[in-house]
């Protein structure tokens, strides 16, 4: 593997870890981080390392810590919100340090494209005293991964490799080393008080940890990942994807600027930055998410009594929120050039602006045609209508997964959604604070194992009157169908003990536990009603298979003579397979024959047909 | 030299594969190449767009508005949606077929002719053909993405060689689907050839 490959940033990171001699990998899927573990899993046998999808990010990190304590070269992968789940062990780990190198790959999602927050892991590095590396493209992602293992080993500290969506999911030509399986033996665990975090040990370790930050700041000041280009008097400090936005924005006016690209944002490479600003008159900071570099710079100026203008987020030159691009870089830089009374960067005339485009089909995200969740949601929706007639309100707490799309019209069934595993606990809180309400929590199978179980226990222990609807489609569908404890298969494809969701619910003390096949709308409705009516915690496991994993041989078709054009099937279900071009709806090729439209048609005009 | 392409369509049409095939052809022709795709929610019938750039420098992953040299469209309304990325003398090659969105917006009326006329009015160099039909004739409607790409190469809308694209199909597409995709590319090349000879209308 000695030449150019066309790789996604996430794939490059996986190969970087292999090049660094990886022995142990854990993770929990989450966009945009998922492909790192997926690439590792594909290569685990070939390069002789262990890889697993763990039940959640905290468990993934703790498992990797165990491996690192034994001397194994380890990586753990997650997205930024997953880091919150893992933050408990992480904050203590940083005091203890590691033995085998331990790299935490965390992906941030400016935009956000598919996340609950616009968090910045660089700030988490500062918070937890963990060095952060911040690559800008796939080649750098590859090189920095190797460097992350190197400094983790050298300084016995966990290291953050932090990317953003446009680094994780960009594809580039990447030159790889000749990859070989790690031939080093894992040293093994040796008993020592070093691995037991007692207050006394924490007090001893804290000064060492603080001292390490100074050492690392010095080391990073000499790192090739922090470099200067250009000789202009206006300095631009930037990092990650923004580095490329800046370069393109100033490509025709290079003489005006010098650019310092920071690849190691924490600990801040003070010496390097001071050297850079020596010859500079004013400074522009271009960075997505937090004003991290800007804060560090201002702090540095205060510390050394430096007085130079800094233009960034704090003086509203650049936005705090949303994803950046070349246009945002240009607009911000032009604001500064206006202040400095220097001629603006030219912005080319456009062919057309966005608001001149004629009205086009809106394509909101929607549950797939034939998705089991649609049947379950519709069943609950019908039940809630019946309850409404008795003046009883039904409140639906959602969770994180495909089924969050139950919030989309026309189902509009999700009333709350916060973070992984929160649905059941929120429903518990709502149940105690609302009279005349019935409270239903939806949770997917993977989320159930991730962080749903403690909430089930809490509901039972504290006698909450909630209905738990487990939407079990036998996979982690949202992130690309990773296996989980309910699938009976490990990441590496081996058969394993299947953890039984109903068994867990029962052993947690829920007395009303039912299982129903999600393709049977009427039974779904009947059991939903019974579960809601049950006094005390109840649970229904709705079982189906994710439609993108099975090829259906069934289809539905509409009998045009029978159809009255009432449009119930079109307007209430939001199924992508049903469309309306004239007065009579039409069922299209992507129908999987789930039969929900048959069940809701008041005149029996829809029939199932075998394909071909 | 640097060349920017927006490839757009609807989830499930193969935007990501098209982008990959084009990128690998560019890489094998000696260029740096980078792409950025919208992933995640988009697989569920949403709009999908891939930004692809190749040339002598490493670029940012996103193409700024008003700077794309070419839009390759797998669905015609998605081309219109991304028109603000195209530069003033940019070109378009697109499938003429429109995909209507799912149920919720069914009361809204969309007319593909109107959208095509809007695009052609704004951009003179537009090739708009029913590539879905060409792919069907080639053996599988799913090879429509390769069919559009084949036409873009053959029409010299890209500074890369058509023959090199055929080589990429041979190296990248699994054997089972290879011939159908080669057929799809060749059949649409033929269509472009006839069009350029004036046997067919644009």
Written account of the structure:
The complex is a heterodimer of chains A (612) and B (202). Chain A has 612 residues and is α/β, with parallel strands linked by helices. Chain A has four domains: 4-217, Rossmann fold (3-Layer(aba) Sandwich), CATH 3.40.50; 223-340, 3-Layer(aba) Sandwich (Rossmann fold); 372-543, Thiamin diphosphate (ThDP)-binding fold, Pyr/PP domains (Rossmann fold); 554-610, Alpha-Beta Plaits. In chain A, β20 and β21 form a beta hairpin. In chain A, α8 runs parallel beside α10 (270-277), α9 (240-249) crosses α12 and α13 packs across α17 (521-533). Chain A is globular and about 80 Å long. The model of chain A has no long low-confidence stretch (mean pLDDT 95). Helix content of chain B is 41%, strand content 22%. Chain B is of the alpha/beta class. Chain B has helices at residues 15-28, 76-81, 112-122, 131-138, 144-154, 162-172, 175-196, and strands at 2-10, 32-37, 47-55, 68-73, 86-95, 126-129. At the A-B interface, β8, α9, α12 and β20 of A face α1, β2, α2, β5 and α3 of B. β8 (170-175) of chain A pairs antiparallel with β2 of chain B.
């Amino acid at each position: 593997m000695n030449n150019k490959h066309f790789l996604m940033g996430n794939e490059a990171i996986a190969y970087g870890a292999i090049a660094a001699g990886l022995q142990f990998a854990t993770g929990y899927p989450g966009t945009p981080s998922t492909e790192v573990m997926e690439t590792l899993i594909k290569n685990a046998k070939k390069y002789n390392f262990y890889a697993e999808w763990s039940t959640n990010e905290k468990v993934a990190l703790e498992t990797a810590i165990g491996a690192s304590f034994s001397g194994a070269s380890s990586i753990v992968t997650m997205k930024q919100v997953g880091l919150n789940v893992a933050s408990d062990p992480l904050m203590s780990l940083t005091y203890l340090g590691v033995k085998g190198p331990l790299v935490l790959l965390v992906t941030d999602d400016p935009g956000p494209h598919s996340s609950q927050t616009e968090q910045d892991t660089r700030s988490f590095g500062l918070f937890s005293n963990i060095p952060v590396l911040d690559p800008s493209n796939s080649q750098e992602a590859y090189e920095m991964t190797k460097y992350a293992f190197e400094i983790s080993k050298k300084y016995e500290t966990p290291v953050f490799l932090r990317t953003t969506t446009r680094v994780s999911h960009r594809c580039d030509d990447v030159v790889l080393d000749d990859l070989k399986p790690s031939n080093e033996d894992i040293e093994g665990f040796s008993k020592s008080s070093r691995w037991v975090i007692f207050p006394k040990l924490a007090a001893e370790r804290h000064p060492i940890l603080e001292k390490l930050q100074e050492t690392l700041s010095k080391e990073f000041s000499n790192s090739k990942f922090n470099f200067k280009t250009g000789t202009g008097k206006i300095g631009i400090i930037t990092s990650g994807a923004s580095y490329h936005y800046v370069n393109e924005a100033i490509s025709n006016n290079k003489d005006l600027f010098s650019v310092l690209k920071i690849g190691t944002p924490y600990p801040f490479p003070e010496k390097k930055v001071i050297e850079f600003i020596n010859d500079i008159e004013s400074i522009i900071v271009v960075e997505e998410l937090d004003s991290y570099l800007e804060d560090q710079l201002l702090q540095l100026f205060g510390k050394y009594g430096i007085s130079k203008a800094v233009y960034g987020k704090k003086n509203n030159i650049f936005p705090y929120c949303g994803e950046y691009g070349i246009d945002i870089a240009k607009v911000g830089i032009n604001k500064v050039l206006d202040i400095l009374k220097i001629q603006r960067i030219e912005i080319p005339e456009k062919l057309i602006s966005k608001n001149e485009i004629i009205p086009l089909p809106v394509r909101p995200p929607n549950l797939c045609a034939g998705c089991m969740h649609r049947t379950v949601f519709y069943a609950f929706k019908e039940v809630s209508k019946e309850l409404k007639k008795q003046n009883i309100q039904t409140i639906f707490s959602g969770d994180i997964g495909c089924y969050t799309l139950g919030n989309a019209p026309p189902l509009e069934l999700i009333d709350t959604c916060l973070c992984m595993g929160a649905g059941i606990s929120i429903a518990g809180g709502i149940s105690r604070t609302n009279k005349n309400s019935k409270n239903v929590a939806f949770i997917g199978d993977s989320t159930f194992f991730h962080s749903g179980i403690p909430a089930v226990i809490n509901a039972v222990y504290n006698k909450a009157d909630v209905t738990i609807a487990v939407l079990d489609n036998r996979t982690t569908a949202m992130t690309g169908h990773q296996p989980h404890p309910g699938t009976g298969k490990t990441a590496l494809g081996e058969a394993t003990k299947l953890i039984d969701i109903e068994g867990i619910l029962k052993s947690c003390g829920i007395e009303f536990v039912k299982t129903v096949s999600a393709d049977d709308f009427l039974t779904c409705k009947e059991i939903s009603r019974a579960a809601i009516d049950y006094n005390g915690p109840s649970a229904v496991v709705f079982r189906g298979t994710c439609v993108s994993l099975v090829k259906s041989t069934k289809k539905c078709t509409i009998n045009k003579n029978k159809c009255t054009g009432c449009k119930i099937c079109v307007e209430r279900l939001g199924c992508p397979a049903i469309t309306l071009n004239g007065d009579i709806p039409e069922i299209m090729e992507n129908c999987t024959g789930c039969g929900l439209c048959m069940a809701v048609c008041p005149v029996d005009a829809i029939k199932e047909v075998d394909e071909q | 030299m640097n060349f920017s392409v927006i490839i757009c369509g609807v989830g499930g049409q193969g935007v990501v594969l098209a982008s990959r095939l084009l990128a690998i052809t560019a890489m094998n022709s000696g260029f740096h190449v980078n792409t950025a795709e919208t992933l995640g929610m988009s697989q569920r019938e949403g709009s999908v767009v891939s930004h692809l750039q190749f040339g002598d420098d490493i670029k940012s992953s996103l193409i700024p508005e008003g700077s794309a040299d070419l839009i390759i469209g797998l669905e015609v309304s998605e081309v219109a949606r991304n028109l603000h990325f195209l530069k003033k003398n940019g070109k378009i090659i697109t499938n003429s077929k429109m995909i209507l969105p799912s149920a919720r917006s069914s009361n809204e009326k969309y007319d593909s002719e109107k959208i095509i006329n809007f695009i052609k009015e704004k951009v003179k160099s537009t090739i708009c053909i029913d590539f879905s039909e060409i792919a069907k004739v080639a053996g599988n409607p799913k090879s429509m993405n390769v069919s559009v790409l084949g036409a873009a190469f053959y029409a010299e809308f890209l500074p890369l060689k058509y023959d090199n694209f055929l080589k990429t199909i041979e190296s990248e597409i699994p054997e089972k689907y290879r011939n159908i995709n080669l057929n799809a590319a060749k059949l649409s090349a033929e269509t472009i050839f006839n069009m350029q000879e004036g046997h067919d209308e644009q």
